[in-house]
Amino acid sequence: MSGEDHPLLRDFGDFFENSLCGYAILDGEDRFVLCNGPLARWLGHTVEELKGRRFAELLSIGGKVFHETHLAPLLKMQGHYSEVSLEMVCRDGSRLPVLVNAMRRQEADEGGMIFTRLTVLLAVERHAYEASLRQARDTAETKLMDAEETAVLREQFIAVLGHDLRNPLGAITMGTALLAESELSPRDRKLVGAMESSALRMSELIENVMDFARFRLGGGVVLNRRPSDLQKSFSEVVAELQVMHLGRQIECDIAIDGLVDCDPARLSQILSNLLANALTHGASDEPVQVTATVEGGDLVLQVVNRGEVIPEAIIESLFQPFTREEARKSQNGLGLGLYIASEVAKAHGGSLTAASSSEGTEFVFRMPVVVGV
């Protein structure tokens, strides 16, 4: 059987006219010499109507510019291009997204005719898919920008609010202090004591809000490190909280010899937040344990209470802002104390961890330290 008689070659004509691709042959001036039926039907023309027309005439305006400035020179230099996304203009003016492959050829004899073979594939679904991806990306970017703007505005609002609350609170604190020095009836003294307690509580909330805003807007915690007597600082914190919780038992074991390079006010803040948290959430009939020591070159501060077990899911997010408030909405506070303590710990190159079981809830602050600086 000769090659020309092979059954597969006899079927080539049918393949050309009934393919899922558009095929065309262009002459040296990019004019249609031949194309198959599918390509002509996609464009709303007949095969005869396309003959003699230049390929670029059937492209959108953007496609024409791209063809003249990029594709045509590329075809001359490289001899081919592939998977080029274009839009062809149909007879009714609609746009048809396609992918085009082109191969430039020349007849074997010297000076022979130059021609170009085109393969055109429909890209309607691909075009729609890419459009949906672009839309999804734009929507996500818009939402991200909105979220970032909202976050910045919220934090700026918190900072301004905290600052503006300080002045009137200062006047209230000063007024209650003056009243406390006056001759008062037992009822009035009790009321003044309640006012002082509320003012102190509000002051703590404002400081937490201000710290939160400073940490987020100011790029982190600013420390004032210096050689510090933490034995004295930690003991004072425990004494202050013991006075505020006279009915609670605090078992304290602080053993830190020498001076430690740190910000003593910030480390006192860590202990204050942890101890206040333990006194608030721990079992009222069980002691809260505070230990502080230096072990293996690390300062280790530990606060343990025997309150309600904290679920593992909450433990993992405990040091995120507002977590406590979401976990126990009935409790006072904004849920910022542990977040602030964690940020201060990180600023000292240390860590703050938590664990909770039926035997107790334990918070441990650990930082590398050089004693006796």
UniProtKB/TrEMBL annotation:
SMART domains tied to this protein: HATPase_c, HisKA, PAS
Residue runs in coiled coils: none
Organism domain of life: Bacteria
Compartments, as annotated in UniProt: Membrane
Listed Pfam families: HATPase_c, HisKA
PANTHER family: SENSOR HISTIDINE KINASE GLRK, TWO-COMPONENT HISTIDINE KINASE
PROSITE patterns: HIS_KIN
UniProt-listed Enzyme Commission number(s): 2.7.13.3
Keywords associated with the record: ATP-binding, Kinase, Membrane, Nucleotide-binding, Phosphoprotein, Transferase, Transmembrane, Transmembrane helix, Two-component regulatory system
NCBIfam families: sensory_box
GO molecular function: kinase activity
Membrane topology according to the record: Multi-pass membrane protein
Taxonomic placement: Bacteria, Pseudomonadati, Verrucomicrobiota, Verrucomicrobiia, Verrucomicrobiales
Full protein name: histidine kinase
Enzyme class: transferase
Keyword Nucleotide-binding found: yes
Location of the Histidine kinase domain: 160-371
Enzymatic reactions: ATP + protein L-histidine = ADP + protein N-phospho-L-histidine
Matches recorded under SUPFAM superfamilies: ATPase domain of HSP90 chaperone/DNA topoisomerase II/histidine kinase (SSF55874), Homodimeric domain of signal transducing histidine kinase (SSF47384), PYP-like sensor domain (PAS domain) (SSF55785)
